[in-house]
Automatic annotation (TrEMBL):
Gene behind the chain: MEF1
Primary location group: mitochondrion
Protein name, per record: Elongation factor G, mitochondrial
Family: Belongs to the GTP-binding elongation factor family. EF-G/EF-2 subfamily. Belongs to the TRAFAC class translation factor GTPase superfamily. Classic translation factor GTPase family. EF-G/EF-2 subfamily.
InterPro entries, per the entry: EFG_II, EFG_III, EFG_III/V, EFG_IV, EFG_V-like, EFTu-like_2, G_TR_CS, P-loop_NTPase
Domain of life, source organism: Eukaryota
Length: 780
């Protein structure tokens, strides 16, 4: 689990403590403008969805029969789950069975080749996925009723499980139509399963569940099905029953089509289907098929009706109901298998084709920027002849320029086309278009709607919308969580341009990785989602840019915020010979809630009427506000959760300048800030500890001494799991302590829950420590 991987392969210099402040993730739940029309009860985003957004019908009428022919057999899916559950191992099998790779290589396997989707050296060495990787394949799905085959084109994105790389999951799910949620048959629903579940809800992504590792001792798919229902609160039922357990696991019973499926031949490539259900599982299979129908009756009207009338649904009716309710976000069918033992992967692929939506079945919405703000979003249709709309969801800087991953939502993207960036208005020619196969690419001339591709040599930011210039559509970007940990970084020896080149590149590619210069100490500070996240970048600087760095101790990214509104009326005036400086700003600052769609929680609002401030000075006021937010006066940390409203002001025909307005705003903000009752916030983490039962009291004791609140605990066989909420600041050194107190048998994972005000004693300590770093003249 997380720490097994993260700590054992610590890459960094000794100056970084070996604590495992793994990750963190903002778990705000919302709908991000996609498929907002979900009818789902079960998987609905927790935040109410704007029904006006949802009311616009999908313009399916725009789709031609040719479009439908193509789309019907197209799937875009993500593989997401808790770390180590076997996503990459599973994807490797999928690529092998679909003929995309000639042989199977294991994640951190002995043959030193490594799995296809973990192409980075660091991923292969550490055995973890760091970046999501995209690929595509064709799968000949078998129609269980008549045995005919039908070819499906599937785009797949394998995502990392480690929470430090959560942005990779976030952006993949933003653009995918469906997902496979992988669970370990022993560990079941783990902390990041819950995180991924929330991300899927945020973007309304239907999922099928895959209980992997059925070969492991203690594998129990029924416990996992019940955890999906209770912990993830999704109606779910198994659509398969295992044949054989643990080492003897050799196939599954397909409960829907009532047949046994085995894997034989080299690496399980021969799928053997038998109508004979083995005696040993016959009773169980009957019982589970009934359970499947009962569950479907709860979420699907047709099955519900049949159930009430005591009628038995046909296989086709069950199939249709699973498809309807899965796409409707009301249900998750549960498959099971063992990726490593090459068992039951092909039936899962059939399931992807049968139950996950094609691009025309996902409702996709965009803002029409020609309409007034707040207008309902408009639906897009994946028609090849429609105006082009695509979303750039991921960037990679390479030797040959920027590689931009794009999801084309409507229209056709062609090489050589001129496309427009909806955010900047800039037009650009598409010099090269490729389809990705992990780190390899295949050149293509055009890409149709509902497809995923990549463009070379197109400058843009992550989350930009591209059009053909004839629509005013713009899509919502993805949710970007805030960093929680930071450290100072310095190049050893003389700093070469590669130092900033590397940092600029990483910052551009990864919106959760931030770099800034501390104005007082002049140190370069990098911030990210966890220690591993930062370690990886420091190591990549060494390997890819030949820059060796020394890093400071990881620090918790404290923040400051205000708790009440405060008015300001401030005049900045200076007369020191020559031209003077004059600017007056009037307005207020007030607390602001985080936007669940974008994660944004600071805002500048200009409501100046008349000409008390000439409009050309307004950007300087905004700039001053954002500059003031960089350093709170309590502890020097960034200020969040704050809106500044500029109401009026004053200027002087000669002495007013941008500089004067910027300084006036900074001065005004500082004064108002003191009145707005500022507080220091700290990240609170959800910590999950798993250890043998005999160490339970030591583990609980150590969480208590770290001011942790135990929120859940579970004992299973001879192992127990404790879930606690603990301040990140209290977690330094925990991995060593846990190892020591459990004879190395305890493991923990950690993820961000929320920011909360620190205790008054800590606030005092942080304020004093900050004051000591200030020059004497500024201390108060
Ligand atoms: N017993 C067993 N082990 C498996 C199975 N599938 C994968 N593993 C092992 O689980 C470990 C993790 O596999 P990965 O495929 O890297 O898991 P992942 O989910 O991609 O991990 P991250 O991307 O780092 O989150 C490896 O040691 C695999 O060999 C399985 O079906 N059974
Ligand atoms: Mg992986």
């Amino acid at each position: 689990m997380i720490l097994g991987k993260a700590v054992a392969h610590s890459l960094l210099t000794k100056s970084i403590s070996s604590t495992s402040t793994c990750l963190v993730n903002w778990l705000a739940i919302s709908s991000c403008g996609r498929k907002a029309a979900s009818t789902a009860a079960a998987l609905k985003p927790a935040t109410p969805v704007d029904v006006t957004e949802a009311s616009a019908p999908l313009p399916a009428s725009l789709l031609t029969e040719k479009d439908m022919q193509r789309l019907r057999f197209q799937r875009n899916i993500g593989v997401s789950a808790h770390i180590d559950s076997g996503k990459t191992t599973l994807t490797e099998r999928v690529l092998f069975y679909t003929g995309r790779i000639r042989d199977i290589h294991e994640v951190r396997g002995r043959d030193s080749v490594g799995a296809k989707m973990d192409s980075m050296d660091l991923e292969r060495e550490k055995g973890i996925t760091i970046q999501s990787a995209a690929t595509f394949c064709d799968w000949e799905a078998t129609n269980p009723e008549d045995g005919t085959k039908q070819k499906y084109a599937i785009n797949i994105i394998d995502t990392p499980g480690h929470v430090d790389f959560t942005i990779e999951v976030e952006r993949a799910l933003r653009v995918l139509d469906g997902a496979v949620l992988v669970l370990c048959a022993v560990a079941g629903v783990q902390s990041q399963t819950t995180t991924v579940d929330r991300q899927m809800r945020r973007y309304g992504v239907p999922r099928i569940s895959f209980v992997n590792k059925m070969d492991r001792p203690g594998a129990n798919p029924w416990r996992i099905v019940s955890q999906i229902r209770t912990k993830l609160r999704i109606p779910a039922a198994a659509v398969q029953v295992p044949i054989g357990v643990e080492d003897g696991f050799k196939g599954v019973v397909d409960l829907v089509n009532w047949r046994a499926i085995y894997n034989e031949g080299i690496k399980g490539s021969d799928v053997v289907v038998s109508q004979d259900i083995p005696e040993s599982v016959l009773e169980l299979a009957k019982e589970k098929r009934t359970e499947l129908i009962e569950q479907l009756a709860e979420v699907d009207e047709e099955i519900g009706e049949l159930f009430l009338n005591d009628e038995v649904p046909t296989n086709a009716q069950i199939n249709d109901a699973i498809r309807r309710s899965t796409i409707g976000l009301k249900f998750s069918p549960v498959f099971m298998g063992s990726a490593i033992k090459n068992t039951a992967v092909q039936p899962l692929l059939d399931g992807v084709c049968a139950y996950l939506p094609n691009p025309s079945e996902s409702e996709v919405l965009a803002h029409d920027t020609n309409l007034p703000a707040g207008s309902p979003q408009v639906p897009l249709a994946p028609a090849a002849d429609a105006h082009l709309v695509g979303l750039a969801f991921k960037l990679e800087e390479g030797k040959y320029g920027q590689l931009t991953y794009m999801r084309v939502y409507q229209g056709t993207l062609k090489r050589g086309n001129i496309i427009y960036n909806a955010r900047t208005g800039k037009k650009v020619k598409v010099p090269r278009l490729v389809r990705m196969h992990s780190n390899e690419m295949e050149d293509v001339d055009s890409v149709g709607p509902g497809e995923i591709c990549a463009m070379f040599g197109v400058e843009c930011s992550s989350g930009d919308t591209f059009t053909d210039g004839s629509t005013s559509y713009s899509m919502t970007s993805m949710f970007v969580p805030e960093p929680v940990i930071s450290l100072a970084i310095k190049a050893n020896g003389i700093e070469t341009p590669n130092f900033s080149r590397a940092l600029n590149r990483f910052q551009k590619e990864d919106p959760t990785f931030r770099v800034h210069m501390d104005r007082d100490s002049k140190e370069t500070i990098i911030s990210g989602m966890g220690e591993l996240h930062l370690e990886i970048y420091v190591e990549r600087m060494r390997r890819e840019y030949n820059v060796d760095c020394t890093t400071g101790k990881p620090r918790v990214a404290f923040r400051e915020t205000i708790t009440q509104r405060a008015e300001f009326n401030y005049t900045h005036k200076k007369q020191t010979g020559g031209a003077g400086q004059f600017a007056k700003v009037v307005g207020y600052i007030e607390p602001m809630e985080r936007d669940p769609e974008t994660g944004k929680d600071v805002e500048f609002e200009n409501i100046v009427m008349g000409a008390s401030i000439p409009t050309n000075f307004i950007p300087a006021v905004e700039k001053g506000f954002y500059e003031a937010l960089e350093k709170g006066s309590l502890s020097g940390n960034i200020i969040c959760g704050c809106r500044l409203v500029l109401k009026e002001g004053g200027f002087h025909a000669v002495d007013s300048s941008e500089l004067a307005f910027r300084l006036a705003t900074i001065g005004a903000f500082r004064e108002a800030y003191r009145v707005a009752r500022p507080v220091i916030l700290e990240p609170i983490m959800t910590v999950e500890v798993v250890a043998p039962v005999e160490f339970q009291s030591q583990v609980i004791g150590s969480l208590n001494t770290r001011r942790g609140t135990i929120v859940d605990s579970e004992v299973r066989d001879d192992e127990f799991t404790a879930i606690a909420e603990v301040a990140l600041n209290e977690m330094f050194g925990y991995s060593n302590q846990l190892r020591g107190s459990t004879q190395g048998k305890g493991e923990f994972t950690m993820e961000y829950k929320t920011h909360q005000p620190v205790l008054p004693s800590l606030q005092k300590e942080l304020e004093e420590a900050y004051r000591r770093t200030l020059p004497a003249s500024t201390k108060k």
